Amino acid sequence: MASKTVTANVSQSDASSPVTVTRSPAYRAYLRTLKRRAYAIQAWQIGLLVALLILWEVAPRAGWINPMLTSYPSAVARTFMTMLKDGSLLMHTWVTFGETVIGFVGGMLLGIFCAIALWWSPFIHRVLDPFIVVVNAMPKIAFVPIFFIWLGDVASIYAMAIAVSLFVTIIMLYTGFSAVDPDKIKLVRLFGASRRQVLSKVVLPASVPTLISTLKVNVGLALVGVVVGEFQAAKAGLGYLITYGSQIFQMNLVMTAITVLAAISSVLFIGIQALEAFVLRGSGR
Amino acid sequence: MIAQAMTTGPVVALRNVVLHYFSPERETLALSNISLEVTRGEFVAIVGSSGCGKSTLLSLVSGLMQPSHGDIYLEGCKVSAPSPRTGYMFQKDTLLEWRTVLDNVLIGAELLGLDMRAARARAEDLLRRYGLGEFIHSLPHQLSGGMRQRAALARTLCPDPDLLLLDEPFSALDYQTRLALSDEIAAILRNEHKTIILVTHDIGEAISMADRVIVMSRRPGRIKAEHRISYQSAGLQRPTPFEARKCPEFAIYFETIWNELDLHEMQ
Fold first, then answer.
1. Interchain contact A285–B (C-beta under 8 A)
2. Does residue B168 sit in the same domain as residue B249?
3. Is some CB atom of chain B closer than 8 A to the CB atom of A87?
4. Domain count, chain B
5. What is the DSSP letter of B171?
6. pLDDT by residue (tens digit) across A151-195?
7. Are residues B151 and B178 in the same domain?
8. I need a labelling partner for B81 at 20 to 30 A (CA). Which of A16, A17, B6, B248 fits?
């Protein structure tokens, strides 16, 4: 299973400071250097992407590699446009997107609930800990055929998306809950807080950054679960397109589906980042 | 008159308090037979080397922990749970970083179910008096260490406790801030006529601030000695902690307590 690791991306600058000082020439030069460097990095990123696309276009056409195996960008683009026009691409994308969002939200909610239960009762945590660790280490993809048999073609896809992300969520959140400063818990207990209040006033708000890192990891994992589920079960969706395209040796179709998957994961990830910026805005965390 | 006489007993009384700690490896006797009384308005400091159980003693008085034997009384009632009449200050400021300064100060009122409008007015008043008026709606990370600890003091005092438990509240600050802040806080607390128990390993802090210093032995913690602190050389008025450090008595108290702590025998 290709678990997608996600690097935290904090790129907001602190340029909002209200202090206006006259800038020395040396400082202006420093700012110019910074800007130039940022442009250079962007130029390289775009250049690299373009170079890869050109190589991909040229290599099959020049006969360096078999176009049957790789297809090439212009052919993929044609397929993409055709499928866009007849509406089939949108339909498949929508199916996968919907399944991913539902699986993702379901996995998160269930994971939050389980993590709270484990935090609430250290005894339950002690009992279940080894099971959670083992299940988490298991390749959930091995369950795809079983889920299909048990749950049928639709539910097995959601189940896969949830199964892939649930245990990571539980482990990450529980670890976050346990890492909350004990003095902060002591503080509210000294004001007579009940366990429910310790949870709502301290543990949950303190774990918001953990929750967001978990979201970031889970977006990718839910997508993995959905696509794998679709490989086995679906009659629609991008995972279905990939299997179908490879069975009839239509690499255009496979590549188109993969491109759209990349777009979906980017959109979801950007959404989470916007959420992060909104939630942690100004709190200095 | 009689009723008044009855309530002028000790604010806090510990009677033969013993505490055992259990861990899978061993049983530890943390506190051994501690008896202690603190009268209204008194500022008592407890000094001891680290691990002598002095912070544990505060946890017991706060009601978060129960002693293995013996009893603890607050205003004549046995302590069995945290009381709103007790305020607690930590080594770290423990401000909740997602709440504004004002909301941090109000958390006590919120949890204790006090009248929020009155609490809010008091919180704003306290913050203004402690020089945090401009920062009421700031988040803690925008404040300096000294300001954060003053916000923590406002949080402790907002529900108007009678008894204050200070658990090394200055030790996380740098030296200059610590001296300045201990002057400030000593003045605030004396003005508010609070009863105070300060726990510290800093002898200078204890004798410069407190009326009475209690020296604890190493584990198992016992009361080893007790000193009433007065600065006759400074006249009738109690000197500020900073001035007290310059009085000739300071050096004498310091030396006596230093010897009682046996710090040189450690390690």
1. yes
2. yes
3. no
4. 2
5. T
6. 988 889 999 999 999 999 999 999 999 999 999 999 999 998 999
7. no
8. B6
Does residue B260 share a domain with residue B179?
yes
User: Does B106 lie in the same domain as B73?
Assistant: no
Residue B151 burial (10 A CB sphere; 0-12, 13-18, 19+) = buried
Would you call the peptide bond into A60 cis, given omega within 30 degrees of 0 as the criterion?
A: no
The alpha carbon of residue A282 is apart from the nearest alpha carbon of chain B, in Å, by 8
- The overall average pLDDT reported for chain B is 85
Q: How far is B167 from chain A (nearest CA, A)?
A: 11
Please report the number of interchain residue pairs, chain A to chain B, with beta-carbon separation below 8 angstroms.
61
Instruction: Enumerate residues 6+ apart whose C-beta is below 8 A from B90.
Output: A183, A186, A187, B152, B167, B169
Residue B97 main-chain phi, psi, to 5 deg: -70, -15
Whether residue A7 is predicted with pLDDT greater than 60 in this model: the reply is no
CB neighbours of A53 closer than 8 A, spacing ≥ 6? A73
Question: Are A161 and A107 in contact, with CB atoms under 8 Å apart?
Answer: yes
Q: Residue B110: its chain A contacts at CB < 8 A?
A: 201
How far apart are the C-alpha atoms of A54 and B128, rounded to whole Å? 66
Same-domain check for residues B259 and B192:
yes
| B91 located within any domain | no
H or E stretch covering B129? helix B116-129
B260: containing domain? 2-85+162-265
Please give the structure tokens belonging to residue A16: 């909002």
Helix (H) or strand (E) holding B78: strand B77-78
Give start-end residues of each CATH 1.10.3720.10 domain in chain A. Answer: 72-279
Answer yes or no: do B166 and B80 share one domain. yes
CATH superfamily of A72-279: MetI-like (1.10.3720.10)
d(C-alpha A263, C-alpha A92), whole Å = 14
Measured between CB atoms, which of A183, A184, A191 is closest to B111? A191
Would you place residue B34 in the very low, low, confident or very high pLDDT band (cuts 50, 70, 90)?
A: confident
Instruction: Answer yes or no: do B132 and B245 share one domain.
Output: no
